[in-house]
Amino acid sequence: MKKLCLFLLPLFLLPPLSTAAQSLPIGDPFETYQRSIAIPDSIYTHPSYNLRSVESFIPQISDPSAIPAHPWQNHHFFQPADERRFTIHAPTLITTTNSDFPAGQNDGAMWQGKGINTSFSVGANFRYGPLNISVRPEFGYTQNNDFDLSPLQTASQVSEFGMPKPNYRMDNPQRFGPDSYSWFHPGQSFARLEYKGFAGGISTENFWVGPAQHNPLMFSNNAPGFFHAFLGSYRPIETPIGNFEGRFFWGGAQEFDYFDENLDNNIRLISGIVLNYSPSFAKGLHLGLTRNFMEYIPDDGIQSEQIFRAFQAYSDENFAAGGENTNNQMISVFGRWGFPDFGFEMYFEFGRNDNFRETRDLLVHPDHARAYMLGMMQRVNLPGNRFLSVNYEMTHLQVPRTVIGRTNGPYYQHSVIRQGWTNQGQVLGAGINSGSNNQILSSRMYDSWGMAGLSFNRVEHLNDRLRRYFSRIRSYQTAEDVTFTEENLREIEFRLGFHGLIFLPHNLELQASAYQSFFRNRNNLYENNERNLNIQLTLRYQLPGFAR
């Protein structure tokens, strides 16, 4: 720690520099803002937003006067970019608190337990020719106060802090151990070689796949980024028939300390491919797919079979009902169609948690082991160079009706990979968790001073657990003279959110969110109605020339 601080100290003593094109951290307010404002296709090639992070493309536009007026146009972030070798990442402090029990998602390496949680990140970016290195570690503290765990029995194979059945095949604990703790993560760090839009290297960054703004099916920043090597693009590759983006990666997902005591399965190989195509004949349309595998590392080490797993043909070996079934396959297709001039976009993602045995199987049961996400966003221009951005998104992870006649495990869980689709105790995809459903409506008003917003979120938690273990859950009920059904034992959360961002004097930026949650039947216990208040504060120091 001391050596790292001595290394970073000179970074703060250097004068701020103008920045070249930079990747905006996932979830950064300027990332969402860029997606909302109207920039004609004629002056810049828009990224698809189906593979994030994305570049801060507005400062690269050679003629800023061609961009229609927008509320944050005078912020120094939008000054024309100037290629420099060295830039500093804006120091960022995040503090959150939960009043009654853990809550929070899409927060990277942080886990938001009951009580106070903090995260601090700082670092720098260095460029020399094709070499691009970014070092941005994160440090944090979690108070992790005690709260009542679910009374439902956990499996004997996992920690007492684990999720109740059927989540014994998922490394997603209710509580991260019995005590408060400090943590460290390399954060959004990478080293890569770049050439004409292509890149290859190593990274611990999060990456986000698909157009969702809240709950993508495959990859998000809900869990810590995992160490991986990659080949792909870092900006759209332009061709006469359209633009292409993609990534081919191999990495290691880690088990959390409080899952099981087996040291031989702590790291799982995760590999996959992401492709996106933006056709030249349909402006604003972006179509993509991703195919990913998770498996335990073989005793004889990683071979070519594992390296090129994402390219193998469909076969019976990966089908849950037959073959050796040594890995978990996740696949999804997604699309986004944006109309910048009208400020409107619509998007979708459809995923499967299992292979199909043959073509007939796909045709007869296309919704087997599926999940889906649908969304739209509309910009409404307001007087005084302001605008309102309205977003609706729904995500459905609960198993389909085909489960009545065909085995279908909860989404993100698998019969072979005991830890499920997770890294360090958190889901890699949608933060609402396995077998849950979600509908969220949010609006944000942007002005020159910042942003103010409101959101309403409805979550049906762990419906698949209730369905599969209804008899056992019913036996835990204490209410008398009640006929218990799945319907009156569903755990439903209504979450009201308030959001704000203020550009303060002295190059400071304060971002805040407050979520008041109301739970019906928490832990699937009849009339166990509880509340939780989650408050999140983010403070950034953004001098001109600092990277985000």
Q: Could you name the CATH class? A: Mainly Beta
CATH homology-level superfamily: Capsule assembly protein Wzi
Q: Give the helix proportion (percent range).
A: under 10%
Name given to the CATH architecture = Beta Barrel
Radius of gyration: 23 Å
Q: What percent of residues are in strands?
A: 35-45%
SS-based structural class? mainly beta
Tell me about the biggest sheet?
18 strands, antiparallel, barrel
Q: Which consecutive residue ranges, at least 5 long each, have pLDDT under 50?
A: 1-19, 318-323
How would you characterize this protein structure?
The chain has an 18-stranded antiparallel beta barrel. The protein has a two-stranded antiparallel sheet with strand order 1-9. It has 548 residues and is mainly beta. The two termini are 23 Å apart. The chain has a single domain, classed as Capsule assembly protein Wzi (Porin, Beta Barrel). The protein has 7 helices and 25 strands.
